Amino acid sequence: MASHGPVKDIERVDYSTKCCCRTTDEAYYQAPKQYFVRHPTLSRRKLTLTEPFNVPFDASTFEKVLIELEKASILSAAAAVTVDTEQSGGDNTQKPQWMKDLDKRQQRFLAACLGVTTWDGRDVCFYEEKLPKENDVVWVKVIQVNDTSAVVQLLEYGNHEGIIPYTEITRIRIRAIGKVIKVGRNEAAQVIRIDKEKGI
């Protein structure tokens, strides 16, 4: 039996290991949950459900998307992106036509599932909003640590930069902040305040 494919009876989907997706033209597909674990919204909410969730593709396009997600589950997402960049010479000239024709919403969805934050060299936002809301929990990458704060990139919001003050990193008195948070690591963080003028 194929790891993914169309289904007629959504009640027979094994939701313990698979999920059920509904396309824009009302077709249903089952696929392993691991295809979507990199997508922040799906992994937090949809993958725990025992019912179908919507995907922004018609059936024909989604079948091609599933093939790409199957590749990414075998390779790492980073390896898949590296191979694609090498083949395309840094642009999308070697991408299949269906990929070139994806709209922004579809690009965001596929990029999120692949675990990448760029699409053809452009930063990708996984949501319609350019910035998160206060109290949202976001996924960040630490890019700089100094004596008073850490600078991070919001991976789900087009790599917008944010600052985590020393006082918010730990309540324990330590000599070096670098012992608690390290450059290059991905961390979950809660948004305390948004500076809309600066865009962070």
Q: What Rg is obtained from the alpha carbons, in whole angstroms?
A: 19 Å
Q: Could you name the ranges where pLDDT drops below 50 across 5 or more consecutive residues?
A: 76-93
Helix content: 25-40%
Strands of the widest sheet, in order across it, are 1-3-2-4
> Taking all residues together, what is the mean pLDDT?
80
Q: What is the percentage of strand-forming residues?
A: 15-25%
What is the overall silhouette?
elongated
From the helix content, strand content and strand pairing, which structural class follows? alpha+beta
Number of helices: 6
User: What oligomeric assembly is this protein in?
Assistant: single chain
Largest sheet: 4 strands, mixed
| Total domain units | 2
Distance between the termini: 48 Å
| Helix/strand order | EEEHEHHHHEEEEEHE
